[in-house]
Every structure is written in C-alpha cells, then in structure tokens.
Design goal:
Elements lengths: L18 E4 L46 E4 L5 E6 L7 E7 L13 H11 L9 H7 L8 E5 L4 E7 L4 H16 L5 H18 L2 H13 L14 H5 L3 H11 L5 E7 L3 H12 L29 E8 L6 E9 L7 H26 L4 E11 L3 E10 L4 H17 L4 H20 L6 H13 L7 H11 L5 H11 L4 E8 L7 H9 L31 E4 L6 E4 L4 E7 L7 E7 L12 H9 L10 H8 L7 E4 L4 E7 L4 H13 L5 H16 L5 H13 L11 H5 L3 H13 L3 E7 L3 H10 L12 H4 L13 E5 L6 E8 L7 H25 L7 E5 L9 E8 L4 H17 L4 H18 L3 H7 L8 H7 L1 H6 L3 H11 L6 E7 L9
Parallel strand pairs: 3-7, 8-12, 15-19, 20-24
Antiparallel strand pairs: 1-5, 2-3, 4-6, 4-7, 5-6, 9-11, 9-12, 10-11, 13-14, 14-15, 16-18, 16-19, 17-18, 21-23, 21-24, 22-23
Helix pairs in contact: 1-4, 2-27, 3-8, 9-10, 9-11, 9-14, 11-13, 16-19, 18-23, 25-26, 25-31, 26-31
Length: about 1000
Amino acid sequence: MNRFVRVLRLPALALIMAVPMLVVGAAPAPARQSGTAASLPPSALPPLPPQTDPWLYRGSDVPHDRDWTFGTLPNGLRWAVRNNQVPPGQVSIRIRIDAGAMHERKGEEGFAHLLEHLVFRQSKYLGQAQAIPTWQRLGATFGSDTNAETTPTQTVFKIDLPDATPQTLDESFQLLSGMMIAPVLSEANIRAEAPIVLAEKRERGGAAERVVDGTRWLMAAGQPLADHATIGSVESITGAHEASVNGFHQRWYRPENAVIVVSGDADPRLMAALIQKWFGDWPAVGAHTPAPDFGAPVTPPGGDPAWPFAGARVLVEPTQSRKFIFGVVRPWKEKLDTIVYNQGLMLDMLAQLVINRRLEAKARAGGSFLSATVDQQSESRSVEGTFVLIAPMDGDWKKALHDVRSVIAEALDRPPTTEEVAREVAEINVIFESQVQQRALLPGARVADDLIQAVDIHETVASPTAVLDIFRRSVPQFTPAAVHAHAKALFTGKAVRALYITPQAGEADEASLRAAMQERVAADAQSHVAAQTLKFADLPALGQPGPMPQVERTGLLGIEQMDLGNGVAAQIWPTRDDPGRVTVKVRFGAGYRAFTPATAPYAQLGDMALVPSGFGVVGQNDIDRLMSGRKMGYDFRIEDGYFQFSADTRDEDLADQLYLFAAKLAQPRWDASPVARAKAAAVAQYTGYDASPGGVLARDLRSLQRGGDQRFAPPSPSQLQATSLDGFRQVWGPLLASGPVEVQIFGDFDRAKGIEALRRTFGALPPRGPLAPDVLARDVTLAAPSDTPVVLHHKGDANQAAAVISWPTGAGVANITESRQLEVLSQVFANRLMEALREKAGASYAPQVASDWPLDLPSGGTITALAQLQPDMVPQFFATADKIARDLAAQPLGPDEMARVMEPLRQQISRASSSTAFFMSQIEGATQERARYAKLRSLYPDYTQVSPQVLQQLAQRYLVAGRAWRLAVLPQGGATPVGR
C-alpha cells in the first residue's frame, strides 16, 4: 500500500543514485489529425472500462482508491487516469519504462540514463533540441514541469502541463509517443548528448559520489546493484554508438514494459482516449526480454548465525565528516500488498520510532554521537535491510558505535513501555488524520508520482481515508510485545556489514571495524524515554491578555490586519480553502543585519540551537512531550532582514502553537547541551565545504558577493571554538527581545478563537519598541567589480571547477516592479546560457541564472550566473556570459523568445496564486511596510506585461561589463587560466 508513511529516509544511506534530468529537445508538433479524441465533444468520448479487476490491485485486499481508473491496451501497455483539480488547469503525465540501470548488459553501463536524455533530443514529432522550447510555449517550466529520472529499476518521464486543454493534451501525448516509440538515436545525436551526460557525471562526482558508490558496493556485495552506478562510466558513455543504443531501446522500450499515469484537471475519458490514440499502435517487436535477476545477499560461512557479520570497509575522504553506517541486510522478496502486510509495516515503523526517540534523547544529553538513526529500507528490488547511521561526536567512533548498539540492544532485550508505544501511535495518527483532512488538496503531480512509485516497488495505492481506517482498526494489535517482536526482526538478516567514512587516515581499519561490530554489548537500561506527560495547561500564563485588537480590512480577499497594542501586529485569514491546516509565521528582529563580524558565528549556532534550547522551565524533551499527538511544528530561519518561526498546525492546536512561539520571545532558556551539539555539528559540517566547487560556493559565494561580509559565511572551526554558552545568551537574548513582531495566521481556523489566542499569547508580551537605529543602519556592500576573477580552490576531483559572474541591481519594496522584471530578464539569460553551454558546447550540465532583490535591505541585489564545468572551460563561461549580456542590451527579444519565457511565468503565477501560502508569502512584512499590500496587486502585470523594450533597457542598465564581479573555483594545484 503506497504511501503508508515510510519515515526517516537517510540520504547518506542511499544505495543507489537516481539520476534526474533537466530535459532537452522538442519543436512544434505537426498539424494534429482531424477527428482526434481531443476534438470530440464530451458526450462522444468512449466510456471508461469497468473496474472489476484493476491491474494494480490483483492479489491485494487493500481497498481500491476509486479516484483512479485503470486499464490495459491490447499491446500490453498499462495505464491509470484520475481527475484532480489541484492546481486548477494542470494535467500531470508520467510514463514509466520498466528498465533502469540494472537492466544494462556489460558495456551498456549508463545506457538507460543516456537514453533518457536522447529521447528528448529528437524523435518522430520533434526536431533537433526542440523539447524545451515546445513545452515552454505550452507554459511548462523547464526543469520542474518537464523532467525525467533514471534509477536502477526504472526510467520515468514527467510532464506537468499547465492550463491544459484538449488540444494541448493531444499535442503533448503525440510528442511523448514519438519520444517513447520512435526516438532518433543517430550517431550524431549520441555524440551531441554524451558530453552533456559526462558533464552531469562530473558535477555529481567527487567525494560524495565515492561515498555513495562505496556504500552501495558494501551493502549490496555480491549483487548486480553493488557495482552498477546509474550514471554509468566514462568508457561506456563515450563508447556508445547507434547500434548499441538502439539495441537497448528495442529490448526495453516496449508497450508491455510501459505504464502511463495521468492525473489532473481534465476528463478521465479524454485522458484514456488519448493514451489509446497515441500509444495503442506501439508495436511489440520480437520476443519479450525478461527482467534480469537482481540477486540476493549471501550469508557468510561460519560465524554467529544471530549476527552474521559479513564485511567491513573504511573510506578515507579528507573532505567528508565522520559517519558510521552498519546494515543488517536481507533479500528483497516479492510480496502481496495486503492489509496484513501493511500492518506489519506499521509495527516496523513503530519499532523504529521508539528506538530513534531513545537515540535522540541520548544524543541530546551529550552522548558520544551527534546523531544516530535506525531506518528500514528496500533498495532497488535488490536488498532489504535495517540501516543504522551514526555521526560520532569526534574521532572516537568506537565509543559512539558501542553506545548506539547498547540502545538498540535494550530495544531487542525488552519490550517498549505501553507509554512509549502510545506516544508513537498518537504521532502517526495525527499524520494520517491530516492527510484525510487535506486529501482534496493533494496536487495531481504528487498522486501521479505516488502511483508510479507504487508500481516500481510492486505495491498498491490507497486513499488517505483507507489508510487511516486500516491504521485505526490495527491499533489494538500495536502492543509492546508486537512492537518488540518486530524490533527483533528488523535486526535479523542474512548479513551484517559496516562502513566507516572518515577524513583522517589511520583512525580505523577493517579489522578494528570487525572487532567493534562483533563485540558483545550490554543493553542500556537507562535508554527508555521517560513517560512523564507535560501539558500546556500546566504552564504559566505569559502575562495579562492584551486588549481586543484593532482590526482593519486589507482589501485583499478576507485578509485582516490587527494591532495588539504592544508592538505586535497580526495578519489573519480564516479560509476553508485549506481544510485541516493552519499555517503560522512569526516574523521579528533584524535577521543577519542584527549581527556584527564579531557576533556572526552565533548566527549559525542560533539557527541550530535556539529552538532546542527551549523556554522557561521547558527543555527540548519537554517540547517534544508538549507536541506529542498534536499537529504542531517549530521551524526557525534567519533571513537578511528578519528572523522567523513557522509551523503548520490545525484549529484545535492553534492556541498552543501560538503559546510555543510567544514563550520563546518572553521566556528564552539557555541550555548548554544544544549549543555544544550545534557547535560540534557545525565544525563537522565545515569539513565538507572543500569537497567540491559546489561546496566552496555554498560556503563563500554569498559572503564574497557582499564584499567579504562575515555575517553571510558559515563560521570556521576556530571561530566556533571561541563561542560559549554565555556568549550565545548575550547575543540572542537581546535579539529575541528587540523590535516589532508580525504574526500571520492563515488557514482553516475559527476567527474568534484565533483572536482570543493571540490576545493570551502575543498580546500578553511586554511592549516591544522599534529596532535600534544602528542595527537598521547596517547595510550590505557588494564586492567591487573586476575583469579578473577572484580565485578559490577546492580539494575535490581535478576535472571539476565552477565559475560565477554577478552584476549589482537593487533592493527594497519601493521598486519591486523592476525586481519582477529582472526575474523575467534572468530567465531569458538562463535559457540562452543553457543553450550555449549545455546544448551547443556540452560544457555544463545545469548552468543557472538568478535575480536576488532583497526586500528587507536597502541594497544588495544581484543578477548572478553560474555553472560547474571543467577547469579549461572557465574562460569560455565568462566569454559566453559577457556575450549574452551584450546581446541582451543590444537588441530586444523576438516574439518567440518572449513567449518561451512569458507563458511559463503566467502559468507559474496562476498555479501559485491558488494557494493561501502564496498570499502569505507575498505580504510578509506588510504590517510594518504597508506598501507591500499594494504591490501584491501589481504582481501579475509586472511579470506578464513586460515588453521586449523594457527588458532591453534593464539589460542596458544592469548587465554592464564594467560592473560585473567574477569568481572562479578551481581544483587545488590547478593552473587553469581564468581570465575573460
């Protein structure tokens, strides 16, 4: 039953690398045939087939999701269609081919992914490199609405078609049919696409790729998955040729290997008719090729059958933080996706949640590890396993491993308490209840992706109502004894394998790993999380409730603004458009402006430790108890000009959610453990920045763009070591108490109760005055322009580099119209840079251009172009970017290029504005700067009515060569020229 909640996915444990693709290729389709399904009136559309035995549910007793209709064409192609009106007008199409990297033969490594690229380059109805422009003309945004991905087990093509009409759907299905059935896999196309794939491989390579490959090699040892990277090898990609690639396509791109899923705002009868029209004549040529055997883990000979340790590996990567991973692996087996099977999955999840809560409690208490997590995974229909990921506090990995295994040993030795199980059951129940409440808001793309995932893992889908019903009927089975039995099963398998990743050679070897893993550990009887209950009703009031606020209409929908009289203002919008969800945001303070170079290290510590420090007498474990079984959250972020708490909650939990946020401002708490943990995590994270050009950019770009301003750079280990708990309190105490507060409450809540909750929480805060003038005066100074790039170095692979060019623009709300027009110009720039560097030169996989216009600062805006490429291509990047800038200033855009940018923008705005979150984000800060309300009204014309002449004038004003700042990130020891 897909998607029952699978929790705690660990990216570092991924045994495979799915390779998403930013698609290439497609032109206007030829004239549509007359009398097509798209031109038939609704009354003439053929009826949908009866749903007596839908193919997805054969052998399963999971209740059918009746929103889906399933069918099979005579040639064996399976399909599923569904009407879904979120967002309005959009139709999402997914085509899954049951062939991925694991279906490749020797010498074909990477062919599945290469073919994913090639079908977009040219096909029966598409000219050379025309897919991007074609779907842009139809309103689809490149990279998000048009995409594809390859994994070890499948290749999936994805189109989210906005403003879909019968005609544009017909055209899209026609294009997709040509891509699947008749791509042009010529020698010329292969030679054109191979460099793009190699650029993608290069940009994804380095230390992180070696860790993924090493993990996969160890955990799937002896199976095809072990040494089968989805991206392939340089040799196989460069060695691909017309006959070999065509052979792969003919072997696997067949109707019986295909599933088409369509979900969106259209008549399901039309969807089914178009599938029949364009894919019904897909021929199955030659004999069917059965899928290869993916193998199974092998039990090592001898040893302890209860703990069959089979292998260990140490990876020394100087730019990676320490991680210890061990897995208890089992063969993947075909299963019937029944209710009983899903009840077992629920018990598995409960067992993991109990163990993980215990591990987190131990880490919070200052244990030997920063974090540790248990996660059950099924990888690529090859390996099932229980994987444990540990981040040691320092180089003492043995102590960290021992302590984690002791907590796990306790979970295997004794059942959890009734209270522990009840707590996790309540947590899951809230999740499933929320899914039922918001089922009408599920985007069509999401439900289409869920069904594709179900097909891939050979499971079914169920409606949120069915999932909740199965869960609630199963609760009596969720006894401590049953959870204990499943915990023991999670740590039973065919083989146990361990991997240690370290930046320091000599810390460990395979023998020491083997010895540590085979050591007998005693159960940690103190690891049970205390069953004490804490309720908001037990907490003191924050003060006297404030007076009834002054309320005024904003003139925007039903949004109201109110003044609570103490420096706190609120925006509220009770609306039934977001059933079961209330979003709360609290904006306060000055953000990064509040820090000085001396206090800047405390910004990152606050980002990580402020919330865990708690409030009043309430620590982080207490916060967890308060939120247990409730729909509440506690996110915190720092922006240029403000701090923000945010959460998704619901009407019945809104008052307590507001208390949680207000208490942090009124009664901050200063715990040593969260600060120490944040320091250790930040130091460990810093190690990885040097691993690749992308890491160096993540660390240094924002700071260097802003003249080396240390407020915008992560602190170094030496800076972090100089921080203290007392310093943390001295910096953050005044920041929490300073400046006006804005509270936003949007969603499905009772207006009167919401206002009363505001009075009792934020209305009860002491008066808050304006921010200090010296804080408001702190500005951003951009780096001086230069024809010669700043040069930084990374410690990754010698074939990796990055280049950046940036032009200063503006900031603030007053000229927000220009900021929106600059986003349009940036998209034009991005299209041209993509065509020049990727499509023509194969130099970069995904060059980017973005406009940043800070609304909360008086200056600091930029247009920035960047690309990752080979070191010797850095000068070409600068030359290309300079030429594009000159061309944009020299002459206005033509109608077609304007259409390719404007139509996707129109559709993005149309889709976004169907949600309350859109309006919430657009008017943030308007209680302090009322012009933001008026500026929202001009948003649509600002983006969609800009002329070619205006864009040319903006290019002439801003994209001036003498104003550009440049940066190159080169491999350490490299001597590549970086000039213009």
